[in-house]
Amino acid sequence: MSGNAGGGSHGGSPKSWLAVITILVGSTLSGVALTIGPNWVLVWAGVGICAIGGVLALLFDIMSDVIVDKPRVPLAEAHPMAKRMH
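Structure (tokenized):
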């Protein structure tokens, strides 16, 4: 991210990553609990953790956290020689 002066970044903020990691931990816990048992208490604990992560994502408004880059230029417009090669 440091070499991106003036451009956009898709890195997200730490609070957004907290929500994503919370959802990931809950999903992992549920998945592991299903494969080792199934251990339904741990499955539902993982579902609860995912729900908490979803609430965090809504509170932190993580979908508006991404900075969009400038539109990309098609290859043919960026390099005139590309048209001649085809």
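The radius of gyration is 21 Å. The longest helix spans residues 14-36.
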